[in-house]
UniProtKB/TrEMBL annotation:
PANTHER family associated with the record: ALPHA-HUMULENE_(-)-(E)-BETA-CARYOPHYLLENE SYNTHASE, OS04G0344100 PROTEIN-RELATED
Pfam families tied to this protein: Terpene_synth
An individual GO BP term: terpenoid biosynthetic process
InterPro entries named among the record's database cross-references: Terpene_synth_N (IPR001906), Terpene_synth_N_sf (IPR036965), Terpene_synthase-like (IPR050148), Terpenoid_cyclase/PrenylTrfase (IPR008930)
Keywords from the UniProt entry: Lyase, Magnesium
Domain Terpene synthase N-terminal: 3-58
Top-rank taxon, per record: Eukaryota
Record-given protein name: Terpene synthase N-terminal domain-containing protein
GO molecular function: terpene synthase activity
């Protein structure tokens, strides 16, 4: 985890991926806590669009946004891609 401290994009990816955990996977729960704390501490130093991506992730994880987006928009023409939801 020490290698993630300086790489915000990797940390953001790790944060989002950890939300795919199964209940009781403590290592992933610890990863979420670590990443959330680190992202919160560096967000004020980031520039758009990365700052926006971090802010969105801290508000609602990517996998939850994707699930919500896919449930709301069942038409293939209105679904947003993962790239569109991660603006960095």
């Amino acid at each position: 985890m020490s290698s993630l401290r300086g790489d915000v994009k990797a940390l953001l990816s790790q944060y989002n991926e950890a939300y795919l955990r199964i209940h009781g996977e403590t290592i992933l729960e610890e990863a979420i806590t670590f990443a959330r704390n680190r992202l919160t501490s560096v967000i004020s130093d980031l520039k758009p669009p990365l700052s926006m991506a971090v802010s969105l992730a801290l508000e609602t994880s990517l996998c939850r946004r994707m699930r919500s987006c896919c449930q709301e928009n069942t038409s293939p023409s209105t679904k947003r891609t993962q790239h569109e939801m991660m603006p960095y």
